[in-house]
Amino acid sequence: MEVEIKNLTRVSFSLLASLIYCHFISSRIPKGKIRLVSLLPVFYLFITLPICFASLFPKAITSLFISWLANFKLALFAFDHGPLSSDQSNSLLQFISKTLLPVKIKQNEKHPSSQPPQNSPKLPLNLPAKVLLFTVLVGVNDYKSSFHEKWILGLYCCMVYLLVDIIFGIFNATVHAILRMELEPPSNEPYLSTSLQDFWGRRWNLMVTNLLRHTVYKPVRSSLGSLLGQWAPLPAVVASFLVSGLMHELLFYHVTRASPSWEVTLFFVLQGACLVVELAVKRWFGGRWQLHWAIAGPLTVGFVVMTAMWLFFPPLIRSGADERAIDECKMFLNLVKGEGLKWIGKLI
Fold first, then answer.
1. Strand partners, 183
2. Judging by beta carbons within 10 Å of its beta carbon (0-12, 13-18, 19+), is residue 242 exposed, middle or buried?
3. Which residues cross the membrane (predicted)?
4. In this structure, how many other beta carbons lie within 10 angstroms of the beta carbon of residue 238?
5. Average pLDDT over residues 181-202
6. pLDDT tens, 299-348?
7. Residues contacting 26, CB < 8 A, separation 6+
8. DSSP alpha helices (H): ranges in the chain?
9. What is the rounded CA–CA span in Å between residue 52 and residue 127?
């Protein structure tokens, strides 16, 4: 624990120094390629920071928040786009918060594709309910030797969703409490998705979706627009999923330190290819034919879960990362439980 605290201190100072440089020096460089070049050392540093940690969760969180999301925000910043652009009038504290934390400020007018269908069902889970359910599922893992492998992988799917939403939700709540910013939710009930477009574009991990939209989808669509016309969005979708797959490979490497197997990249490319087929079919029928949500929902979620069992989880299971993650969750929950009991004892 002491070693990890020292590692966290070193990483924190590196991040602070890097973002002070970005805010006060890179921001004064003309936007475009020259500013992008000035940020290259920061990009490299942010990619290497996760290996400073020994524990799995600090590696995973640093890889996702810093190596991926922060670098993508800074890439947009190089061209004066995104949450760090000059028209946002960011103070140093706001610049650091927006760069490092997985939050998106709520806009008056959201991107149209971020809205789920109005006739879809609602089954909201608030943050405390997700924490409670995740705690229960961590306990269920003690008995997984009694379950079939497919049930265990299904359990992992639920735990990944809950854990990602809990982590993003905690940061959302913290930033809202400190900076009083109105923030968009990290996800929007992805278990109620009625299509792949609905799942990946409107419901699951909206912070990542928004960044991929601005850093990959829009530039690719714009560059191919004159060549492909109305079909330009389709290769842009595949490109977005390909980049997402490669960034997940980097995250998996940080966590497992194993050579990439490219299974997770294949998972995301497959999702992108199937989404392209779905969009083409919708365009062919002109939106006149649509499955009822009671049928489309299970088909959509089932497809994502089954392909995740096939391609997403095997690299983590082979490396033992799943077991290490569960062990670290148990250690953290036991720590919280112990400290909570001490606090209650003092009150009594």
1. 105
2. middle
3. 42-70, 153-179, 231-252, 264-285, 291-313
4. 18
5. 88
6. 999 999 999 999 999 999 999 999 999 999 998 888 877 766 667 666 66
7. 35, 38, 39, 42, 77, 78
8. 2-24, 33-48, 56-62, 71-78, 92-100, 127-140, 149-179, 196-198, 206-212, 218-228, 233-256, 263-285, 293-307, 314-319, 321-347
9. 30
